[in-house]
Amino acid sequence: MAHCNLRTPPSSPQDDVNLGPSANPNARPTDFDFLAVIGKGTFGKVLLAKHKADSKFYAVKVLQKKIILKKKEQKNIMAERNVLLKSLKHPFLVRLHYSFQTVEKLYFVLDYVNGGELFFHLQRERCFSEPRARFYTAEVASAIGYLHSLNIVYRDLKPENILLDCQGHVVLTDFGLCKEGVEPEATTSTFCGTPEYLAPEILRKEPYDRTVDWWCLGAVLYEMLFSLPPFYSRDIGEMYDGILHKPLMLPPGKSEAACSLLMGLLQKDQHRRLGAIADFLEIKNHTFFTSINWDDLYHKRITPPYNPNVRGPADTQHIDPEFTREMVPNSVSQTPEFNPSTSSSNAFNGFSFVGTEDSFL
After folding, report:
1. Claim to verify: residue 122 and residue 110 sit in the same structural domain
2. Which has the least CB within 10 A, 88, 109, 125, 361?
3. The 105-111 sheet, strands edge to edge
4. 257 and 130 in one domain?
5. Are residues 72 and 178 in the same domain?
């Protein structure tokens, strides 16, 4: 996963990031049996874990503090945690149950979503039918629209960050590149994202706004319909040149509505892009989504076009074997416990959080 090139000055005690109020849940790694590796990133791993007390299964994201501090990424971790706290109220965003820390690591205890990454299914099937692509695009757009309503820009939409749940509904995950506090007319300028899905304005290092997410949605829809991202090339320089300068090529065989939506979302000028004026409302009202009842979609009353047929809450059949073949590191459950009063670094003060059942209603 690509990360922002944050030009952060060296941290001093005054600069340490406080990650919000702590509810002191007294959670610890030994509360869990860690069963399998289900994902990896720059700062650590995501593991399938079973809580010993209630036998429920979770995805536990375990991050190495020293790597975060070395790369000066505390602010991104803060953003991820804060966005997770705010995302509890949407059906297509992954849910944070609680977070805690030890001396060496940070732990996010999340829903285990086991229908597989959209990327995994695309690799297997190459492309999807238009109705199936429409369903996923609508659910993702609903989640993005909700984040935008909270003045959050997602910035890293790609098939690897779109999971399917056990019924086949979309769950958006990985909020490490989210940018908070971006008002409707505001812009930001940090260079970040994943090469195939970067909007032209990010490549040009120009200030950009929430319409970067609609470009990425267009890129994901294009890949679902045509099996590769738009402008894709193994040569990154050539791909960037295509994103910046070449017209969008739409192979034949797709509906006029699908082509119209792609042209609107993959508009190089962010000010003319679909969503530039009325944001999610413009996407909802596009003819491609005429058959979608958005209220039914939000309440999961539409039957997903594909059922992953998971075999139970601990099923890993849709997780890439590249991850599950890996041994679970012993260190995830054996690190010294965190004591705020004796900690030498307060860079992660207040990281701990515990939800109540009310949070998830």
Report:
1. no
2. 361
3. 32-40, 44-51, 57-64, 105-111, 96-101, 353-354
4. yes
5. no
Question: Domain total for the chain?
Answer: 2
Lowest mean pLDDT among 69-73, 226-230, 252-256: 69-73
Nearest 10 degrees: CA dihedral of 211, 212, 214, 216? 180
Give the active site residues.
156
Claim to verify: residue 167 and residue 293 sit in the same structural domain: yes
Segments forming the whole domain that contains residue 70: 13-114+313-340
CB 63 within 8 Å of CB 44 = yes
Tell if the pTM clears 0.90, that is, is over it. no
Please name which of 170, 148, 118 lies closest in space to residue 304, comparing C-alpha atoms: 170
Q: Over the stretch 215-245, which tens digit does the pLDDT of each residue have?
A: 999 999 999 999 999 999 999 999 999 999 9
Burial class (CB in 10 A: 0-12, 13-18, 19+), 284: middle
- Biggest CA pair distance of the chain: 64
- Evaluate whether residue 360 is within a structural domain: no
Q: Which amino acid is at 236?
A: I
Cβ–Cβ under 8 Å, residues 320 and 120: yes
Boundary residue ending a domain (298, 327, 355): 298
CA distances for 95 relative to 51, 72, 109, 171, 195, angstroms: 16, 26, 9, 9, 27
> Which residues are known binding-site members for ATP?
70
Is the C-alpha dihedral spanning 323, 19, 357, 172 positive or negative? negative
